[in-house]
Amino acid sequence: MISIFRTAWVLILGLACLTQSVVLAQSTGQNGLSRPPAGAAQFTVSGYVKDAKNGEGLIGVSVFVKEAGTGAVTNNYGYYAISLPPGSYNLVVSFVGFQKQTIPITLTTENLRKDVELSEEGRELQEVTVKAEREEDNVRAIEMSVNKIDVRTIQRVPALLGEVDVVRAIQLLPGVTTVGEGATGFNVRGGNIDQNLVLLDEAPVYNSSHLFGFFSVFNPDAVKDVKLIKGGIPSLYGGRISSILDVRLKEGNAKKPEVNGGIGLIFSRLSYERPLFKKADGTARGSFIVAGRRSYADVLAQPFLTGDLKGSSFYFYDLTAKANYRINDKNTVYLSGYLGRDVFGSDFGFNWGNATTSLRWNHVFNQKLFLNTTAFYSNYDYMLDSDLKRKEENKNDYFRWKSRIINYSIKPDFTLFLRNNTLTFGGQSIVYDFEPGTATGASLGSIRTFSLENKYAIENALYVGNEQQVSARLQLQYGLRYSLFSYLGPGEAYSFQTDVPPGERRFPILSQTRTYKRGDVIKNYGNWEPRFSAKYELNENSSLKLSYNRLAQYIHLVSNTTASTPLDVWTPSTNNIRPQVADQVAGGYFRNLKDGRNNTYEVSVEVYYKWLQNQLDYIDGADLLLNKYLEGDLLSGRGRAYGAEFYVKKNTGLINGWVSYTLGKTDRLVDGINGGNWFASRFDRRHTLNTVALIDPGSTGRLKRWNFSATFALSSGTPATFPTTRFEYQGYVVPHNADNLRNNYRIPVYHRLDLAATLKGRQRTGKRKDDNWVFSVYNVYARKNPFSVFFQQEPATTIDVPRSPELGDTRRLQVTNNTQAVRYSVFATAIPSVTYNFKF
Amino acid sequence: MQSNTQNILGRLMTQIGWPQKRRSAYLLALLSTLTLAGCETVIDAKLDQGPTQLSVDAWLTDALGEQRIRLTQTAPYLQNGAATPATGARVGIRDGKGRTYLFTDPDNDGFYSWRPTSPTDTLGRIGETYTLGIEYGGQQYVSVSRMNRVPAVDSIVFREEKVNPISEERGFQAEFYVKDFPGAPDYYRIRFFRNGQLQNRPNDLITVYDAGFSSNGNTDGLLFIRPIRQSINPERLYARNDTVRVEIQSITPEAFFFLAELRTQISNGGLFATPPANVPTNIRNVNTNGPAATGFFVTSAVRSRTARVTDEMIRK
Q1: Of A373, A476, A593, A656, which residue is least crowded by CB atoms under 10 Å?
Q2: What's the pTM?
Q3: Which of A409, A418, A384, A408 is nearest to A398 (CA)?
Q4: Residue A620 is nearest to which of B13, B39, B277, comparing CB atoms?
């Protein structure tokens, strides 16, 4: 293991050196722009770009040096650095939604620190901004298959029950689907939900849902930036094979205290942010934000609950907090935390929740070298209890069960800003502690405990990557990541039968069970993960992009239900479960169209093909919970996903928004399922169309206090397995598929229209309060969209039949052997809502 | 509407063995609170046709007297009506001692029966292994099953309870007591009858591993756990003077798995459905390339107890 790491380090350092020499070699320049000869003295201008209003660092701001024809983009902390020969320059700092600034600088004999504050543009433009992103970003940036959504946009999209939601907004983007509304998580380019790395300030979130999947755990009042990376994933990221959802929290207002809140039908929200350690000159060394939400349906219902249900709990809450402190010009620390929980139950109950903490330290070694070190802790756990209140009468009969996954990690990420190259390198180490299940049960006083052993693992990774401006038109990003996963003791490792027909349970061969001590390596898996992206600008308004990446994933969500449940268990790769690996190639054409005004439409077309290895599947009747020999119920297969994504976005005007259309297909091939032939995965949707329209009547006229929005979503039905025949057994009618096919049908098409209107409060002079009312209707035309179609024997009814008096009762169960097809819809009606938001 | 929400959570609770009564109460509360109105609608569907196959419903017990095996043909899924009998078959059982029992269907209704020569005689004996042989449509089918041990039902008691916590209606909840044998794993099925009528909603298909729901519970040798003890209740509980009969049947591990799968497949809808799949069968065509059969052969020792909802049986 150590030797592998040594090799990896040598390789990475070697690559770094190689890149350096490439930099030197190519910096002689050949693109016609004024470039100094190699070896000329270079100095660096660097600094942070912040929002003038609240001091938040701005991510992805373009800092362009006109005279040198070069520039940089601020990183996730708002930091930029550009190397230049001595001279006088103008820095053009621009970001959509903010006023462009041109800053004259002179580099003489030393590096220059230049922090910049950008002010938002006037109201009109701000309100119609679809995203906060630098202009022309879609064409000029090397990244492809990336979608960013500004929180202000997310807040404008009509929301279910008025609750603004990050994950639901993500589902309106190209390449993103879900198995159905109300389902946990989302599927990216044909990948499973456990293949998305959901990061909250760099700490992974294992279950991003409240109330199964109706709401996500991200409090929009505390979120600053949301970025979804579906392809061309840089070497900085690893550990999941389909996408990265990078959610960054606000830092908190560094200028003045601010309160945001809202009252809706499900949640009420409140957040507070303010500067910390304010100095005499008004600048602050730090700031913080605390934001909380709680559902209160249970509070409203409490008076109506009587008897056993009195004191029932059903609520969910979350608390998000972040603080930052600037120690000096070179060091800043950030501390972020999330704590959320869903609780349901009266006597019986269950609850689940995530807790994450991340501590980050930004260190500027010198003007060119930036280090961010993140240490995080993430915990997901759930618990069931048949006796939530620990009543005396139940002390001899109960059942309790808990399960969790914990991980700790440290992750140093270096960025080296060189001329025309931005080199990133670093590593990550994650320690996993899985508790698959501990159950305690009592039956009339006899107490039994049943626990599955905890599982331990460590995942290490090293990476290096470089973003290189090869010429004015050609930009490359390439890198390599090596990940090494060790499944560790203490624990027992099982061997399973190999001579079982495919698709059937493999029983353990107990004589081959091996016991490992603490720290023993049960199984190692290592993967080289190359990454590559290229961008070629055809002209000022269009570019072609290409990418390839390989990703490896060592943890798996064990779930064979249509929608994942909160009780699904994460499991590490073991001696019996191989890591998931995905290879993806993607190509795209990006173009901006102008119609009189600059950059009015952004258009992109992307195609992708993805190969998936070692995809988990399950035998029929698999026993996935509290099963010591779970691995014997698992199957492994291959997957493939391919498709095309079309995206048109209008950034300005009375009506703006986007239309996305995805044509996609995702299949699986598993020995033992569907006769060993390819079958459509359960979240496969051929066509997905999403339209988002944001309408702003402007700052004058009768509707000046209003704005409106609408979304329309249309997608093909998901696949389903329908029976061909039936037979009767012991009075039950049993469905049967003569060829034992999987997903041989599709349920009907899904479509839905949502509308929302926002009424802004009157602006009163002298008052700092800002408020609005949001009225929305979800599923406007009340379509009973199918979530699934299933088949059943007509449900039994109880009928009244006269009987002899001494039998006392006249009820009789009536059972028929009629069968029926049933469409299940999660929502059958239009769902109106109203939310009041305020800010002061 | 209520049943949909039950789909959402019912699965989770079944998995951990939560009693039916509280489950629905909790779900009702959840539903009324969240106003998330799911909906089930019966729709028309066009389904592929499959070939007709032989279906075997063979459940033999150690009870005295007649034993029956039902043979039918599979039918298109949405074709309602009684199953077409599979007639003209030759059906026999052979036990480990080489004794054979011939099952005949003189009235051609698909029910093949065997009658002992003496009314106190029986076919089934605990510990014996039985082989079923069927000749039908030119094919030979075989199946093997063992008859396992079964404990006696100790008692049945009743308590007056609300039908569910948010209802004003009251009824009598039955609870039966059985103790699992210590040692080797035991598998059982529970059946219950209200005033002589078998209760056979999908939820009434109760299987027991030792004293719990599954092998993951470590309940060997215990008194059946409470969710199982209270599983023998109709939706609105019992009324005064009702008679309740509870049967415990021993089954094989294969039959346990088959019944669990059958229960899953006949109530598999909603958010948390598992992929529909064929239930397993232990009926094997001797010619492996010949048409397969469906159904299951189970041999089962049965013990039962009957009680009546009267004052002396009602616990406070």
Answers
A1: A593
A2: 0.86
A3: A384
A4: B277
